[in-house]
Design goal:
147 residues, alpha/beta, five-stranded mixed β-sheet
Amino acid sequence: MPRRRVFVALALALVGLIASSQEIRLLIVDETTTMEESLRIQALVRGLRASGVFTLKAMLAVPTEPWEDVPFLFILVFPVLGPYVWLLSPGPVQYLPDPLPLVYYALADGVAQAFGGAREVRGSGDDLYPFLLSVRLQRLGVLVGVN
């Protein structure tokens, strides 16, 4: 697994965010059941933490109750089965304000590299399921809503 490329890509993509000192809140939902996938997620998390831009929280299941804490800008859901990883955002990437599309693509690239092509990243603009899950999590207050 080319971890160095993951970290370099994330670092280059997030330089502008670091300069503006904007914090990106990211929720990672790890529903996987294999050690290999969990280790790949752990490698990704280490790279994200090293960037200094992300505030991370991890859970084992998608929240189902109203959220009382500050909502997240992005949510990565690693389902137990299937070839996909859901990258949830406040809206389709083409409608996100700058610099959020840069973060979206950096996260998608980091996940693709961490999983070596074994899982495909799908977002709100790519598939109906992540779109509907984004809307549900916005209503619960877990994901930042669209104005």
